[in-house]
Amino acid sequence: MSGRGGRTIRVDTLARVEGEGALYIKMAGERVAEVKLKIYEPPRLFEAFLRGRHFSEAPDITARICGICPIAYQMSAVHAIERALGIRVDPAVRLLRRLFYCGEWIESHCLHVYMLHAPDFLGYPDVIAMAQDHRAVVEKALRLKKIGNRIMQLLGGREIHPISVAVGGFYKTPTKHQLRDLVDDLEWALEASLATVRWTAGFQFPDFEQDYEFVALRHPDEYPFNEGRLVSNRNLDIDAAEYEDHFVELQVKHSNALHSVVRGRGSYLVGPLARFNLNFDKLPEVARNAAAEAGLRPPVKNLFRSIVVRAVELVFACAEALRVIREYEPPAAPRVEAPNRTGVGQAITEAPRGILYHRYALDEQGLIVTAKIVPPTSQNLRRIEDDLREYAAQLVAWPIEEATWKCEQAVRSYDPCISCATHFLKVVMEREDTRLGTEAC
Amino acid sequence: MLIIGCGNRDRGDDAAGMLVAERLRQLGMDVEIRRGEAAELIAAWSGADDVIVVDAVMTGAPPGSVFLWDGQHPPASHSSTASTHGLGLAEAIELARVLGCLPIKLRVYGIEGQRFEIGVEVSPEVKSAVERVVRRIEAEVKPCSLNQVPMNLRA
């Protein structure tokens, strides 16, 4: 729409992002005057819910923060608490946790690549319209997603809100036979993922590269899930315990979500692109070859290509799941004992959308004194706004409808999970935020 | 018959479908509980030919109103489900129709909610509607008790 003194791009409800958000970009002539990605979901109360609860409840409570990535919340919670308690888990448990994460990555990446993101590149308003012309593609996506869900259901113990993850291990571990039942499906999924890389590599991508600070875990031997140091392409190399020394969360007026920045530097990028660029050498050969055939070489600096990188990570997740199943021997006990003690523990794990930080302080009875959770989307929010400022500047001459559509696509490239990103803020909420707090979809 | 209750227990009235499912389970019925995400729903009803789905809705009607839709004429997505997800029940129905995997018989019970904030209680009107839907579904599954069930679904 045109207005006096400039044009405004306003997307009141962003479609195809998890949760709800609104985007506001104000252009003044040739200049982008203002960019605001608004989050108006109800604030997250989970950090407050956790206070006073026993640490053993944390995996189940935090799993409910997000319907798409419950495993990520469970993984960051148990690793942080195990660190606070000073306990080490059985190597078989460690393997199972990697498998569990594979299931979540397959499900989440499949949802985003096929159901939410691909329609942008093929010119459809949504996956329903896309399915009319690409029925086999959507059927493949549904099957692939279901395979990810099978892993999560087997290890999680039920269809939603997994309950089997425990501090120290699992409440129940699967047999070798149960895992082997997944092999045929996963072999099909690996082939389907390779085809996904080839399919997405053929899309047309806007010419838009940025100089990002990529931040991801890095492990000496493996593509990261639950362990490793936090590194960046700007010489960051820290332990999870140092996270809050290097990253700070800022409150911004227009959003319920906190914006996270690197102290002294500013915005940064977490998620598939960061992982891929910082850990390319740790991908299995099948995934590296798929990336090379798709023309992906680190560093990939075009966020629109993240759909291809997600597809490469689908290949990794399927190959890694098959490796874990081959190597798995059930642990002697499903979990090690986790006695109550005072302590503070931090952990970072790689959720599908990027690093998820948890910190817990426990008292002598094992009750949670404080909890801090920094989800990946809130870490990317500042970067999304920075990108939009640059990207919108390229679109000033475009018709407003097309420019709006392009900016929406840019936001979707991040796969933002806005329902995870909102925190409880100890400030007076603006009335507008409160009024818009319910979801009217 | 396959019965699926959808929702999120932590978001006030969005728990409606889940509460119906839990009550029906207490009555000895086999009921699935799902978040309400489209791909998950399509997988859940795959192969079934007679399906009931219960979910919270926002249509602007008074809280606790109960709607019954035929899957062939589902509500428009922008005004129906209160799902936190980009693709919810209405999209699941549309996508399944395009893919030719919509159950022959699909009915959707929508319970009008009013508050969906994290951590809030389910409103009394919705609790009452949950009971009405439970009785209605129970009557459908157990036809012998049909005469005892009030058929007026409006609050």
Per-chain topology:
The complex is a heterodimer of chains A (441) and B (155).
Chain A: E1 2-3, E2 6-11, E3 21-28, E4 31-39, H1 46-50, H2 58-63, H3 70-85, H4 91-122, H5 127-133, H6 135-156, E5 165-166, E6 169-170, H7 176-180, H8 183-201, E7 215-218, E8 229-232, E9 237-238, H9 243-246, E10 247-250, E11 259-262, H10 272-279, H11 285-293, H12 306-327, E12 343-351, E13 354-362, E14 368-374, H13 376-394, H14 400-413, H15 418-421, H16 431-435
Antiparallel strand pairs in A: 1-2, 2-3, 3-4, 5-6, 7-8, 8-9, 10-11, 12-13, 13-14
Helix pairs in contact in A: 3-4, 4-6, 4-12, 5-6, 6-8, 8-12, 11-12, 13-14
Chain B: E1 2-6, H1 16-26, E2 31-34, H2 38-45, E3 50-57, E4 66-70, H3 89-99, E5 105-112, H4 124-141
Parallel strand pairs in B: 1-2, 1-3, 3-5
Antiparallel strand pairs in B: 4-5
Helix pairs in contact in B: 1-4, 2-3
Would you mind describing this structure in some detail?
The complex is a heterodimer of chains A (441) and B (155). Helices cover 45% and strands 16% of the residues of chain A. In chain A, the strands form 5 sheets. A 4-stranded antiparallel β-sheet of chain A has the order 1-2-3-4, with helices on one face. Chain A has a 3-stranded antiparallel β-sheet with strand order 7-8-9, with helices on one face. The radius of gyration of chain A is 21 Å and the shape is globular. Chain B has one domain: Rossmann fold, CATH 3.40.50. In chain B, helix 1 crosses helix 4 and helix 2 crosses helix 3. The relative contact order of chain B is 0.24. The two termini of chain B are 26 Å apart. Chain B is globular. Chain B has a 5-stranded mixed β-sheet, sandwiched between helices. Chains A and B meet through helix 4, helix 5 and helix 6 of A and strand 2, helix 2 and helix 3 of B.
